[in-house]
Amino acid sequence: MGESIFEIDPDLCTECKGHYEKPTCQSVCPISKCIIVDPDNVETEDELLEKFVIIQGLA
Ligand code: SF4
């Protein structure tokens, strides 16, 4: 939880790569286009998958 809204930690978000086809938070959020990709934290699929491997302790 941030100061007034929930915030996604870009160091821990893999856009669900390695788990699901689409970002789960976007899929389940009832408000359309509420959760968007942060233009200051755009990552390639390879970078996201690398982060997934590190977070899961598979490296
Ligand atoms: S549900 Fe997936 S896309 Fe959404 S914050 Fe978590 S890891 Fe990122």
Please tell me about this protein's structure.
This protein has 59 residues and is mainly alpha-helical. The protein is built from 2 helices and no strands. The longest helix is centred in the last third of the chain and has 11 residues. Iron/sulfur cluster (SF4) binds next to helix 1. The site of iron/sulfur cluster has 8 residues, from helix 1.
Elements, N to C (H/E): HH
Query: What hetero molecules are bound to the protein chains?
Result: iron/sulfur cluster
Question: What's the count of strands?
Answer: 0
Molecular shape: globular
Number of helices: 2
Low-confidence sequence ranges: none
Quaternary structure classification? single chain
Rounded to the nearest angstrom, the distance between the terminal CA atoms is 29 Å
The average pLDDT is 94
Binned strand content: under 5%
The major sheet is characterized as:
none
Briefly note the structural class of the backbone: mainly alpha
Radius of gyration: 12 Å
Portion in helices: 25-40%
Quick rundown:
The chain has helices at residues 24-28, 45-55. It is mostly helical.
Spell out the key features of this protein.
mainly alpha, 59 residues, 27% helix, binds iron/sulfur cluster
Write the layout of secondary structure elements.
Blueprint: H1 24-28, H2 45-55
The structure holds iron/sulfur cluster.
